[in-house]
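Re: [ENG-882] Designed sequences occasionally contain unexpected residues at chain ends

Forwarding the minimal case from QA. Structure tokens:
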């Protein structure tokens, strides 16, 4: 697919994990991301995880489309932990399961906060009129309660509307996180090396002080022996 955004990836492979309840439109959205003509595509429910690859200029993106039924949701953390960015898809017409959506996205947001991952929240089926607004989904997801970079994007897996905009936002927000992670690792390494060096200096000082104490005790013992020898003579 064509893309006008500049990602500056330096030919690095990035990984994106897509999650959400079953029948929310994850697979159709994924197909829009990786295919040139997805208008007539009809996806079957994902059994486990489907893998896709997206090529943009010199950059490669690995996409994991995770199944949404209950027995497959336990796999989500495994793939999220290996990701550079996360997509959570919500079916705006599925009002009966909004409680379940709240529970599942809360767990995902906690992981994103812990791993410093950006998250794109797709509100699918914008082509169908509902009473729920974007502001309603901000309240439903409670994303503001977490220290994460996120955006909520209306989209239609049927027409493709909004999908490219969401994709561009996510791919642009992947890089600052990775750069920050590299800086953090580098800083942690420097701190670790500094602590090790300080520990070596401290141990060296302790050994020097111990040796000095030993020499002092030996000298005192020698002087006492000399004094006793003089008295006995």
């Amino acid at each position: 697919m064509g893309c006008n955004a500049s990602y500056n990836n330096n030919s690095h492979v990035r990984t994106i994990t897509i999650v959400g309840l079953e029948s929310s439109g994850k697979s159709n959205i994924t197909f829009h991301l990786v295919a040139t003509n997805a208008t007539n595509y009809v996806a079957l429910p994902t059994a486990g995880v489907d893998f896709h690859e997206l090529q943009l200029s010199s950059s490669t993106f690995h996409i994991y489309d995770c199944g949404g039924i209950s027995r497959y949701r336990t796999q989500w953390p495994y793939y999220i932990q290996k990701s550079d960015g996360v997509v959570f898809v919500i079916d705006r017409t599925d009002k009966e399961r909004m409680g379940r959506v709240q529970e599942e996205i809360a767990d995902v947001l906690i992981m994103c906060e812990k791993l410093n991952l950006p998250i794109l929240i797709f509100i699918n089926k914008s082509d169908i009129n509902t009473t729920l607004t974007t502001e309603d989904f901000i309240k439903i997801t409670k994303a503001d309660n977490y220290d994460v970079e996120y955006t909520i994007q209306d989209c239609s897996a049927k027409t493709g509307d909004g999908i490219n905009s969401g994709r561009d936002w996510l791919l642009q927000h992947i890089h600052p996180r990775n750069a920050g992670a590299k800086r953090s690792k580098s800083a942690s390494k420097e701190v670790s090396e500094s602590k090790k060096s300080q520990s070596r200096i401290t141990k060296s000082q302790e050994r020097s002080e111990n040796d000095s104490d030993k020499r002092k005790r030996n000298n005192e013992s020698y002087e006492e022996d000399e004094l006793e020898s003089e008295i006995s003579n």
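QA comment: On inspection the terminal residues look reasonable. The mean pLDDT is 77. Proposing we downgrade this to a documentation issue.
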